[in-house]
Write a structure and sequence with these properties.
This protein is 45% helix and 13% strand. The strands form 6 sheets. The chain has a 7-stranded parallel β-sheet, sandwiched between helices. A 6-stranded parallel β-sheet has the order 3-2-8-9-1-10. The chain has a two-stranded parallel sheet with strand order 4-7. Strand 11, helix 14 and strand 12 form a beta-alpha-beta unit. By secondary structure, it is α/β, with parallel strands linked by helices.
Length: 678
């Protein structure tokens, strides 16, 4: 291994000769490179690869690290090196030493099996509060969350069911339903024991409990493992630390991570595992990697400023190895359509005149739900894209329900479309729908179908089904009107089917759908150009028909991602959406300093994805966006309230977009389109 290819701090970390080390690797500082270098160095120093265990959070990451180590070592020196996830590693230990861990003859069950066991346990038992019935999956979520964060049942219920609310009414509700949930969860544990089942969390607990209470077990494993190399240490949760703590006295820890990028508390991740490392782990040291190889200094300056506003101490200031560049741009917009058009036109200008590819652009949002107008504009302007971390707009169930009506008019032999459209209505199941479809296939044309459908379907909704079909058929050349009329006839049934989140999330999607429809001459064109599936999938990459790129460039697309799915992503040009009050931090999180600080870290992760150009958008109509004056809670906590003028260039979007009529309220305007503050 050529140690000279690493910088000074990386060399120190790789050649560390002490017992335990935490490498605080800031964004873009070569975290993975460092852990690969450490494994290679240990093997060169004579440590057997079998005695090195690499732990990561995904199988893909583990495989990547192991393969990079193997490729860097001559003569197959690292051939027996192992990399695993926490759960996979514990399972390997149990399989190797079944008697040692008391798990001989046990079967590991996956999440589907776990749900089946819970359904058997629940039976006819129903837990309800405020008219909401807890489903078996929600009970599993409570059970697993409580175990992973190592908190009591009341705390798990509060977090998973009541979103962490601390008010007296919530506490009373928890006191009422807790005993009922406890009975079911204890029965669930008993059922697992009787079936000799181990779920994923059990794997960690079985190993941890044995090692903490059995000196012989510790002695055996100390002979098998010398070094634990742990990636993304900031994402470990209390249960994983409970497991790792049992190894402190028998192996050498080499942990790599960044506390400023700990953003998965909803999965139980605890940044305190980083902050308390030296306190918890005797004979340990901390080294900081702060030389960034990704971004220009101006991008790092705003990222450094953001994290330094935190009351928590992250003790790192990133410095760019690339030098200076352009100031980040703070783009003020008045609604999501202006935001979407600004971004789309900026990308198209870069593509056509600035010699950039679509793949040079990354768009980050707190949720893909907020990006629906953006996706609509991209489809309208023929910009190819893929989404990470959420379902595409046209893949949402309520949208596909309405589109299915257009499909069967466009092609009355579309059995898949008919199955979805018919089974949408009460009283028509798959068997009955199949019988209807076989008769519909006898119709010679859509006109024949439109004239005779009412005589075929006799359910309560038969007249509505026939009316929708005729309306679409008569307006097949006016897609916007066809969608409007279809939605009006399906609205009540849609609202009932999706009543759980209709008002909050789904209803506001239909003005977006109307906007899309207005761009096509016929419903056939709308469907054939990819609206049904949002994009034509070629080798996993979407390419719109008629797009400005061709199939030889199928890998070139804009990436739209949630910030939580952005780890490992980077791009020449990055857009961070809606960095507005009540979003950063979220209005839901204002009562919790820990959650506010996690929102800060979420934004930090987003900003540090950019290489050369960074655009930050915010809604000027948000309360007190520029000059907070009344609500001191928001003004004191809004992350960008006091950002120095020297760190950003402020822009106002020039793309004033005509307002779109809300089809459910003909005389009202709603441009929020369900802004997601979660």
């Amino acid at each position: 291994m050529n140690i000279q290819k690493y910088n000074k701090n990386q060399q120190k970390a790789i050649e560390y000769g002490g017992h335990h080390l935490l490498v605080l690797a800031g964004a873009g500082t070569g975290k993975t490179r460092c852990i690969v270098g450490r494994a290679s160095y240990l093997i060169e120093m004579g440590v057997s690869p079998e005695k090195i265990q690499i732990l990561t959070f995904t199988k893909r990451s583990a495989n990547e690290i192991v393969e990079r180590v193997k490729s860097s070592m001559p003569n197959n020196q690292a051939q027996s090196l192992s990399g695993s996830t926490f759960h996979s590693w514990c399972n390997q230990l149990i399989v190797r030493y079944p008697n040692l861990f008391g798990a001989s003859g046990y079967t590991v069950i996956d999440s589907d099996d776990q749900l089946s066991v819970m359904k058997m346990v629940c039976g006819d038992q129903i837990i309800e509060f405020k008219g909401i019935r807890l489903k078996p999956q929600q009970l599993i979520d409570i059970y697993s969350f409580g175990r992973n964060v190592r908190k009591n049942l009341s705390s798990a219920i509060r977090e998973k069911i009541f979103k962490g609310q601390l008010d007296e009414e919530t506490t009373q509700e928890i006191d009422i339903i807790r005993p009922k949930i406890e009975i079911i969860l204890k029965a669930f544990q008993q059922k697992k024991s009787e079936g000799r089942y181990l779920d994923y969390d059990d794997l960690l607990l079985v190993v941890a409990n044995r090692l903490r209470n059995d000196e012989e077990a510790r002695s055996i494993l100390s002979q098998q493992i010398e070094h634990l190399l742990i990636d993304e240490f900031q994402d470990t949760n209390p249960l994983q630390w409970f497991l790792l703590e049992s190894f402190v006295d028998i192996v050498n820890f080499y942990c790599v991570g960044d506390d400023a990028q700990s953003i998965y508390s909803f999965r139980g991740a605890d940044y305190k595992n980083v902050h308390l490392f030296k306190e918890r782990v005797p004979n340990s040291e901390i080294l900081i990697l702060d030389k960034n190889y990704r971004s220009t200094q101006e991008i790092l300056d705003i990222s450094n400023w953001l994290i330094k506003q935190s009351p928590l101490k992250y003790n790192k200031t990133l410095m760019s190895s690339r030098g200076k560049g352009n100031l980040p741009k703070l783009v003020n917009v008045s609604n999501q359509w202006e935001e979407a058009n600004f971004i789309a036109e900026n990308i198209l200008e870069n593509f056509t005149t600035n010699n950039k590819q679509f793949g040079d652009h990354l768009i980050l949002s707190k949720s893909t739900y907020y990006t629906k107008p953006l996706q609509a504009v991209f489809i309208q302007k023929k910009i190819p894209y893929i989404t990470y971390g959420g379902r595409k707009f046209m893949e949402a169930a309520h949208i596909k329900d309405v589109i299915s009506a257009l499909r069967v008019v466009n092609n009355h032999y579309d059995d898949i479309g008919w199955m979805r459209f018919l089974t949408f209505w009460d009283g028509i199941g798959e068997v009955k729908a199949s019988n209807y479809i076989s008769k519909i296939n006898e119709f010679e044309s859509p006109l024949d179908c439109a004239e005779n459908l009412a005589d075929l379907i006799h359910e309560n909704d038969g007249e509505t089904i026939s009316d929708i079909y005729k309306t679409i058929f008569l307006n097949s050349g006016n897609v916007k009107l066809a969608l409007q009329e279809t939605y009006l006839r399906m609205e009540k049934s849609l609202a009932f089917k999706y009543r759980k989140d209709w008002e909050e999330k789904r209803k506001s999607d239909f003005p977006v759908l109307e906007l899309l429809g207005d761009n096509y001459a016929t419903i056939g064109q709308m469907i054939s150009e990819g609206i049904l599936e949002n994009a034509k999938q070629i080798n996993g990459s979407p390419v719109l028909e008629g797009s400005v790129i061709n199939e030889s460039e199928i890998k070139d697309h804009v990436v739209i991602s949630t910030v939580h799915s952005a780890k490992g992503l980077e791009a020449d040009v990055c857009y961070v959406l809606n960095v507005s009050p009540k979003v950063y931090p979220s209005a839901w999180n204002l009562g919790s300093e820990e959650k506010i600080e996690e929102d800060r870290r979420v934004l930090y992760v987003a900003l540090t994805r950019a290489k050369n150009e960074l655009y930050i958008t915010r809604d000027t109509n948000s309360i007190y966006t520029v000059k907070p004056t009344k609500d001191t809670e928001f003004s004191s906590k809004y992350f960008l309230e006091k950002i120095p003028d020297s760190l950003v260039e402020q822009l106002v979007s020039p793309y004033i977009v005509k307002k779109i009529r809300d089809i459910s309220q003909p005389n009202s305007i709603d441009l929020s389109f369900g802004m997601d503050f979660s």
